[in-house]
Amino acid sequence: TILDCSLFYVRDPQHLIRVMSTNPSYLRSTSDGQVTQYRDWGIPLGRRFRALKLWFHLAIDGIESIRQRLRRDLDNAKWLASQVEQVPGWELVAPVNLQTVCVRHHPAKFHNKKISDEEFNDYTLGWVNDINSSGLAFLTPSKIDEKWMVRISIGVESTSRSHIENLWRLMQQQVDR
Question: What does the pLDDT average to over 150-166?
Answer without folding.
Answer: 90
